[in-house]
Amino acid sequence: MDATLHTPKLQHLIYCNQTLILGNGEAHITTMPNNNNIIHSNDQSSLTSSTSHSSESNDPFSTGKWASKLLRECAKAIADKDSSKFHHLLWMLNELASPYGDCDQKLASYFLQALFSKATDSGNRCYKTLTSVVERNHCFETARKVILKFQEVSPWTTFGHVASNGAILEALEGETKLHIIDISNTFCTQWPTLLEALATRNDETPHLNLTVVATPAMERSVMKEIGQRMEKFAGLMRVPFEFHLVTGLARLGELTKEELGVREGEAIAVNCIGALRRIDVDKRVDAIRMLCGLKPKVVTIVEEEADFTSSRDDYVKCFEECLRFYTLFFEMLEESFAPTSNERLALERECGRSIVNVLACDNEEGEGEEGEESDRREKGTQWCEKMKESFTPIGYSDDVIDDVKALLKRYRSGWSLLPAQGENNEVGLYLAWKEEPVVWTSAWKP
User: Could you give the CA distance from residue 364 to residue 282 in angstroms, rounded to a whole number?
Assistant: First the structure.
């Protein structure tokens, strides 16, 4: 094995190289209106009288963590169709929530939006409105600034990049024609480090064909500019390089080798980061089988550790899991970013859109409109069950694990690496925030 491919320098280069791809410049994020006061004043007068009926023995404000208690009660009131209790709690949350406050106020604000949409059967409309706002204000510079800042302060995404790059480089070692099929929403920030590693190989520099399967959120204009920057960077690294963009993530299971530009003699790697969850739950096994049909040398999977699928029919359980996951995420953002960070606000708003999708949208499988994305996350154990039908797990080498550990040392305390373990023969690695697994990564072969 070429030792130059698996040293901590792989992740040390990640920031400067990504900047070359994403470019420089300033971005301005347009703020959205505060969602406070979504209940009209005439509604509040009728709700105020219900305060006397709430004789809670446990004061939700006594511990300081009031949002989760009120939100859980509100979700249960919706499930129980208890309109009186729901309206009272809704009024309380509306008075206390703010997308510009502390962590509890923010959680209350974004979950309130989803609960209100669920109660009024306006989830699909709310989600489309939020999506249109994102698309209207989306531009390359905004995406660049948010992505780079997030990767600077948190290993949430770079963890998967380093682990996947290490597995891909090992699996494709010695090959002269490489084809990476990138099914992710990371805007190619993963690949500069890999290009650097290919350029420093002791043997002949291979030809790299990179095909990006774009999600609906990745606008063609943005990806075209990123593709041009990738080609320029590959030229600087003296790596023979081709870039292709393919749309159709929603029908991933139906994509053909021809559509993906697969050629004879290429060693194929498939990279899936935060993308499989965007496929309808009932179509995920078909997508995995299609990937197996490509006969790749390696498939890398990175997904966030949350289960929004098995409890779809139990609203309270689904709500509990959603609240658990996003509480971790929001607390991580609060400790990682400055209070006035525009990048943090943009990430939180994107979470708000996902929360509405999961908790308030009527997006039964097969009924969504063309181009709509699922947002039903699954845990590592669930992905393992699906993958093992078509693939065999590949363990990470000590070199790759050392690279990941070196990466985590660059960040504030609280982050750790956990091996997969459990009764279901789970495989892969977990990124943990304060001992709670938040991101799962693994590698597979047919």
Answer: 10
List beta partners, residue 359. Answer: none
Q: Residues 260, 251: contact at Cβ < 8 Å?
A: no
Cα atoms in the 13 Å half-sphere on the side-chain side of 255? 25
Sequence-separated (6 or more) residues with CB below 8 Å from residue 359: 111, 114, 115, 117, 118, 123, 315, 318, 319, 322
Rounded distance, CA 80 to CA 378, Å? 26
The count of other CB atoms within 10 Å of the CB of residue 439 is 23
User: Which one-letter DSSP state was computed for residue 374?
Assistant: P
| pLDDT tens digits, 72-122 | 999 999 999 999 999 999 899 989 999 999 999 999 999 999 999 999 999
Q: How far is the C-alpha of 377 from the C-alpha of 354, rounded, in Å?
A: 11
**Given this model, what pLDDT does residue 420 score?**
79
Give the whole-angstrom CA distance, residue 118 versus residue 114.
Answer: 6
Q: Which residues pair with 214 in a beta bridge?
A: 247
**DSSP notation for 117-158:** HHHTT-HHHHHHHHHHHHHHH--HHHHHHHHHHHHHH--TTH
Rg (CA), the chain: 23
Q: Decide: helix, strand or coil at residue 145.
A: helix
CA distances from 325 to 129, 344, 418 (A): 24, 17, 17
pTM for the model stands at: 0.83
